[in-house]
Amino acid sequence: MFCTVNRQSRVNCPNNQRVLVCDREFDFLFRPTLAKPEVVLYKPEEHGQWEIYRSSDSRFYVRKLDDELNVISHHTEQETENNQDFAFAFESHLRDFISKNLSLIGNLTLCENGIEYNTDVGRIDVLAQNENNEFVVIELKLSRGEDAALGQVQRYMGWLKENLSESDVVHGIIIAKSISKKLKYAVSVTQNIALFEYSMQFNVSSVSL
Length: 209
What we know:
CATH topology of the largest domain: Trna Endonuclease, Chain: A, domain 1
Radius of gyration: 19 Å
Strand order of the largest sheet: 8-9-10-11-12
Largest sheet: 5 strands, mixed
Structural class: alpha+beta
Number of helices: 5
CATH architecture of the largest domain: 3-Layer(aba) Sandwich
Low-confidence stretches: 67-85
Number of strands: 13
Shape: globular
Helix content: 10-25%
């Protein structure tokens, strides 16, 4: 459907074969999961900012932007077909998985209202606490973790230290499909921030009676 912001096939509509940023006037539907055809009303504050862009091969694709208008993901059927190491389709899927499996990254406990935790300086993807009751900010990137993510995490850490934390120590974690070398260098001289890369595999096996 041409008005569903995150549907790749919308670029087949003549009106959408151009570079544009989606808005609620003309792009008012959102597909919560690629596995089902149901759609909901598009809410940029909940579903993120989406756009249609022209790639280097001169074809049009749909992609999602982060809150500073830096690309965090794009998805095509061909990419999924050609890669054995898959990525999450939406940041909300990665967020929900991480929040339910915090033990994968440490001895952490999800804070109350710790998913999309609202602050005066933005929303924290996942907010947790460690065994010492110190806050842990978890910032998620679907694809590549760039060094701009470091500023986001530090902003949230600073706000927590000033407003909520009873400890002088606040931790940060950045999780992405891949971590850029620039981000690795930046974090190497930064205290209390750790980097993680996620991967996921799809396997099938035969079943018999």
